[in-house]
Amino acid sequence: MEQTYWLRQTEKPLFPELEWSRPETRLQAGKLLIIGGSGYEFKAPANAYGDALDAGIGAATVLLPNSMQKVVSDIFPEAEFAPSTPSGSFARNSLAAMVDLTTHTNGVLLAGDIGRNSETAVVLESFAEKYSGQLTLTKDAADVFCQQPISVLHRPGTLFVIAMGQLRRLGSEAHFPRAFTTEMDLVRLVDTLHEFTKRFSFVVMTRHQGHYVVALDGRVSTTKITSEQPVWRVTASAYASVWWMQNPAKPFEALATAAHQLAAL
Questions:
Q1: First CA to last CA across the chain, in angstroms?
Q2: Distance of CA 35 to the CA centre of its chain
Q3: What is the CATH number of domain 6-263?
Q4: pLDDT-based confidence at 2, cuts 50/70/90?
Q5: Cβ distance 210 to 224 under 8 Å?
Q6: Torsions phi, psi of 195, nearest 5?
Q7: Angle, vertex CA 76, rays to CA 72 and CA 81, nearest 5
Q8: Alpha helix positions (H), the chain
Q9: DSSP state at residue 84
Q10: Residue 27, CA atoms < 13 Å, CB-side half-sphere
């Protein structure tokens, strides 16, 4: 049976009109809030900031725990800071700063490097419940929700940019009856994601067998990767966030186009 929900993207983009209709000025290109970091580790949010600029964001703000304020302020003047735990992760009372900054943004990227602090996990879960806008999750920030997905199972506007191992955990914790495995072929993955995203409201972007795979509301796109990309989740989440933000009425088309750009990097 023909899988009409599966769109295969080659060197030519599936939706070329999105590429030539991009915002002409940065003032029209959206504002992204990037949240991440812990202790003295802020590589993921810093890289996400640079990748978002490369992807064409109008403006980006990075929110870090204030444990690294003295170290980071001079070298990363774009950063904002929120209260931290003694271990340097986001503290419970950082939630107010996160929510306040969303009033000036069009979307949020939880970029990772958050550490393994249970208080920080609670903060991110609370943030996902309070914030109703576009939310992208990746790296260990996504792990929080793969392990405890209840707050995002039916949250509109949530994108997971995750590896196959994380997708397996997400499916298991969501009690989805079909398993995701690293051994499954691309056809089986597409079919499983089709059913998975028909059941739940979030969007999935992953990488498998040399392809970027995007799944939303039962529709799936695959894009063949033409270059080596051993480290990919932060860059993919930044590009996906930007394209999605700039085309909010066409999320599937936007994320497929982001994958097309990523595949050629």
A1: 34
A2: 11
A3: 3.40.1190.20
A4: low
A5: yes
A6: -70, -40
A7: 60
A8: 16-20, 43-55, 69-72, 95-101, 118-130, 139-147, 164-173, 186-199, 233-246, 251-263
A9: B
A10: 0
Q: Would you state the structure tokens that stand for residue 29, as one six-digit string?
A: 């290109």
Each residue's pLDDT tens digit, 98-131: 999 999 899 999 999 999 999 999 999 999 999 9
What are the boundaries of each domain within the chain? 6-263
pLDDT digits (tens, 9 = 90+) for 141-180: 999 999 999 999 999 999 999 999 999 999 999 999 999 9
Q: 200: helix, coil or strand?
A: coil
Per-residue pLDDT averaged across 28-36, rounded?
93
CA neighbor of 234 nearest in space, from 51, 89, 31, 54 = 51
Ramachandran category for residue 41: left, alpha or beta (phi over 0 → left; psi -120 to 50 → alpha) = beta
Q: How far apart are CA 85 and CA 13, in angstroms?
A: 45
Distance CA 120, CA 265 (A): 33
Residue 242 CA: distances (Å) to CA of 43, 105, 259: 19, 12, 12
**Measured distance CA(192)–CA(195) in Å, rounded:** 5
* Residue 75 pLDDT: 82
Q: How confident is the model at residue 3 (pLDDT cuts 50, 70, 90)?
A: confident
Q: Let me know: does 162 contact 170? Beta carbons within 8 Å.
A: yes
